[in-house]
Amino acid sequence: MKVIIVGAGISGISAAHILSKEGIEFEILEASPVIGGRIKKCNDFADFPIDLGAEWIHKLVFARPALTSELFAGKEKNQKTFRYLPKTIYQYKNKRLSQRNWIKYLLGIIQDFKFSDSTWFDFLDSLVSDEIQKHIHLNNAVTKIDYHGEKVLVSTNKGQVFRAEKVLVTVPIKILQQGMIEFIPEIPAKQSTAINREKVGDGIKVFIEFSEHFYPDLLEVGKVLGNPFEGDSGYYDAAFGKKSDMHILALFAHGSKATKYTCLESEEKIMKFILNELDEIFDGQASKTYKKHIIQNWSQEPYICGSYSQRKGDAKKMSKPLHNKVFFSGEAMNSKGRTVAVQGAIESSYIAIEKILESKK
Questions:
Q1: Does pTM top 0.90 for this prediction?
Q2: Is residue 71 domain-resident?
Q3: What are the residues facing 25 on neighbouring strands?
Q4: Residue 42 · residue 52 · CB < 8 Å
Q5: One domain, residues 220 and 273
Q6: Residue 41 forms part of a structural domain
């Protein structure tokens, strides 16, 4: 049996790792020039690696796939972590800056961790053995999946056609919603409706170096207690917990609260907006001490198109296999409901591969 994996994000790479251990032949088709999907890092901005995509380790999402067991147990030698408990927490709302120490208790319940001196990308990259690397085809955007015959035919934008008995689609759900991949036969109406019911908002991360430290460990912008899946916006000290003396402030916004940034036409306009916002909050200190920045606008990434799912769709319906030939995984496709987090995406590939192996029997 041969499996074609569509997408080389954490779902696709973990699927390849699992299949490799099972001795099952596979190929990975990735649309972009790099692996990682919504996991991405920058090594040359600060004296510690920057997570431009997924950053936090959310222990409250109870998915614990085998690949992450040592990480969550704190036994992963090359992936040391620390509990994220910021000391100074403020909220900026209605043009007022107020201290919000009670948020510490909320964060204590949430149990978020972060990497000490590595990133989620390093974790992903550790799964890519030399054998897996040989089967990754970059810059190969899948345009059509034809599963009506005995074998599944997968066509790419390069005019290539790959053949296999099974296909695992791991792309962000926005790619399916926008019809960027043609399915023959079409995805059944009920399943397509479930897929289109899911919501994925805008997403952006910005890291800014300043010559002085004038900001708290965490700054929430706007309402604090809301639906975290639908939208959030805040600044945080990116160097907190790191072995660094640099002053790096980060912005993370997703959903409706990110749109005010992502809709701007250029990086220059985005930075002007952010510096004006920070100057308003901190009495002009941002512009005075600004040194450099890096922006990752996930809404503008052509094969990503946003942040992550908001749990509006039914993951069981969305991930239903097509004729036992085409299977689905990804952070929105975890049929156990443990969506959003990185480990939830990994778990979804375990679930999909179990279905693939059962269909082989």
A1: yes
A2: no
A3: 2
A4: yes
A5: yes
A6: no
CA–CA separation, 60 and 106 (whole Å): 12
pLDDT in tens, 31-50: 999 999 999 999 999 999 99
- Token pair 């997968």 is found at 154
Q: Burial, 56: exposed, middle or buried (Cβ in 10 Å; 0-12, 13-18, 19+)? A: middle
The answer to whether residues 284 and 144 belong to one domain is: no
DSSP summary character for residue 44:
S
Say how far apart CA 341 and CA 304 lie, in whole Å. 16
Structure-token pair, residue 260: 């005010």
Q: Is residue 264 part of a domain?
A: yes
Cα separation values, 121 from 177, 196, 236, 299, Å: 26, 29, 20, 20
Domain membership of residue 75 (yes or no) is no
- Dist. CA 278–CA 287, nearest whole Å: 8
Which domain covers residue 98, as residue numbers? 46-53+81-117+201-307
Asked if 207 and 282 sit in the same domain, the reply is yes
Q: Which residues contact 55 (CB under 8 A, 6 or more apart)?
A: 114, 119, 120, 205, 252
Q: For the segment 262-278, what is each residue's pLDDT rounded down to a tens digit? A: 999 899 999 999 999 99
Neighbours of 32 (CB within 10 A): 18
